Amino acid sequence: MNLKQAMGKTRNPEDEDVNIIPVMNIFLLLIPFLLLTAAFVKIAVLDISLPSLGKGGAGQQEQQKDLTLVILAIKETGFQLKSPGFKFDPINNNGKKYNYRALVTQLKDIKAQYAAAEDIIISPESKVKYDIIIKVMDKCRESGFPNVSLAG
User: Fold this and answer.
1) Per-residue pLDDT tens for 68-122?
2) Whole-prediction pTM
3) Following CA atoms 77, 69, 118, 54 in sequence, which dihedral angle do they give, to the nearest 10 degrees?
4) What is the domain count for the chain?
5) What angle do CA 67, 69, 72 make, to 5 degrees?
6) Mind listing the pLDDT tens digit for each residue in 25-84?
7) Helix (H) or strand (E) holding 78
């Protein structure tokens, strides 16, 4: 006597259907729940105007002489401002906080010397948080440098 005869009933794989209704019910409840609880990403847009580079005549060459290159390095230890004709000491942190007042003072010194300067290049280290970069950009705009560029 073989095993099939001992069981008394033979199974045919074609007779069995997979019941997918419970799975569909779970998805019917799960998808709206996930859509309602999803936190959608909010993207903030920063208005960054870059200096224009174009070809021009003598008037533009004269304008380029008035431009001053200002580079602001943001480090974990503080700020370092570099500009031709100025020698700035590094602005070290007060504990873990950045010294924004000293930065604004140095930026205003440059603006007083070169009133036509509007461009500043910010070069942050890779470990600097975005909040600090945004605060520095705001301080630069408040100090009279509306054209802020980021350098990696």
Assistant:
1) 678 888 888 888 888 777 777 888 888 788 888 988 988 888 888 888 888 888 8
2) 0.56
3) -140
4) 1
5) 145
6) 999 999 988 888 877 666 665 566 655 555 555 454 444 445 567 888 888 888 888 877
7) strand 78-82
| Distance between CA atoms of residues 47 and 34, nearest Å | 34
| Residue 48 within a domain | no
For residue 106 the two structure tokens come to 């140095």
Cβ pair 75, 125 in contact under 8 A: yes
B/e letters for 47-74, b = 16+ CB within 10 Å, e = fewer, are eeeeeeeeeeeeeeeeeeeeebebebbb
* Cα within 13 Å of Cα(88), Cβ side: 25
Alpha helix (H) ranges present in 2-144? 3-7, 21-37, 58-66, 100-113, 130-142
- Domain interval for residue 95: 58-150
The span from the CA of 4 to the CA of 2, in Å, is 6
